Amino acid sequence: MNIAEEINLKGFVEEPIDPTLDLYAEIDRLKKEKNAVILAHYYQEGDIQDIADYIGDSLGLSQQAAKTDASVIVFAGVHFMAETAKILSPDKKVLLPDAKAGCSLSDSCPPHLFKKFKEKYPDHLVITYVNCTAELKALSDIVCTSSNAVQIVNSLPADQKIIFGPDKNLGAYVMKKTGRDMVLWNGACMVHEIFAREKITKLQQRHPEAKFLAHPECEQSILEMADYIGSTTGLLNYTINSPAKEFIVATESGIIHQMEKANPDKTFIPAPPNNTCACNDCPHMKRNTLEKLYLCLKNEQPEIDVPMEIIERARLPIERMLDISAKLGL
Ligand code: 13P
Ligand code: SF4
């Protein structure tokens, strides 16, 4: 099997690693040798977060990808994030430790169906959540993330008609916060849809002082219970600034690594999922491992490739988001 076939089949190129190798030191050495930067999302495993040059939410990571002067970007996240980095920095080599690290939310919105949906509303502006394919971004007017969706919608004239996709939960949250009506695509994230209201209520009874934090990708019935709703960076900052000592966290469990590091005297409890799931791990995010990250930096594979025609159409909606965010100081 050649390299391309192996990546197609497994998502990465498998290779034996000397068990005595100090992976941290070796990754550091390769990073310097190749002028590479490691960008990691908060949902990555703790060991990957610990070796990253920058850890952040989707907005912070896109801002870093747009401004880095590294020659190689290793994106420890999922496919749409690495694609966004490639769109913003097409001259750089963008690597993803496991090419099969996808996203259920992105998958819930196939571009050919979204195109037909969009054609039904010709006078609407299209705002897409960054958790979608490059092709979908190319069909959009403005991209947003969970940390700027409300502000982006508010920056538009009040009578502007809007299609919002692919996340119906974030869309409903934005409608509530802005008081505006939008046409929503019916997509959702598999991780944020599994929280169980009754189990959270029971947990709150056992921890009456705990603050309940939720990501806006959660369903409305869960968001109604929250003391604070925000992107992963927003949730992390809330734990730092709040005098509370206990927090129940309704988002992917990877963020708890940074919450614990930033607040060693505080306790973080993952919000309980329903009975169909054992934990709040994103199976896509967790496909990346430290070993795969090492191999991808060493072999410069798997590499993200986005056709130039898509890059050209998808860049403007992302840049519009970055410009609005910069003007608003986000
Ligand atoms: P943020 O990074 O905007 O918090 O979004 C979380 C997420 O689901 C990323 O996949
Ligand atoms: Fe996609 Fe949800 Fe995983 Fe984020 S947590 S990558 S939205 S499936």
TrEMBL record:
Binding sites annotated in the UniProt record for iminosuccinate:
H41, S58, Y129, V130, N131, S146, H215, P216, E217, T232
Keyword Transferase assigned: yes
Q: Which GO terms label this protein's molecular function in UniProt?
A: 4 iron, 4 sulfur cluster binding; metal ion binding; quinolinate synthetase A activity
Q: In which pathway does it act?
A: Cofactor biosynthesis; NAD(+) biosynthesis; quinolinate from iminoaspartate: step 1/1
Annotated catalysed reactions = iminosuccinate + dihydroxyacetone phosphate = quinolinate + phosphate + 2 H2O + H(+)
Keywords in alphabetical order = 4Fe-4S, Cytoplasm, Iron, Iron-sulfur, Metal-binding, Pyridine nucleotide biosynthesis, Transferase
- Recorded E.C. number(s)? 2.5.1.72
Localisation: Cytoplasm
Q: Which cofactor does it need?
A: [4Fe-4S] cluster
The highest taxon in the source lineage is Bacteria
Similarity annotation: Belongs to the quinolinate synthase family. Type 2 subfamily.
> What does the record give as the function of this protein?
Catalyzes the condensation of iminoaspartate with dihydroxyacetone phosphate to form quinolinate.
Matching HAMAP family: NadA_type2
Q: What is this protein called?
A: Quinolinate synthase
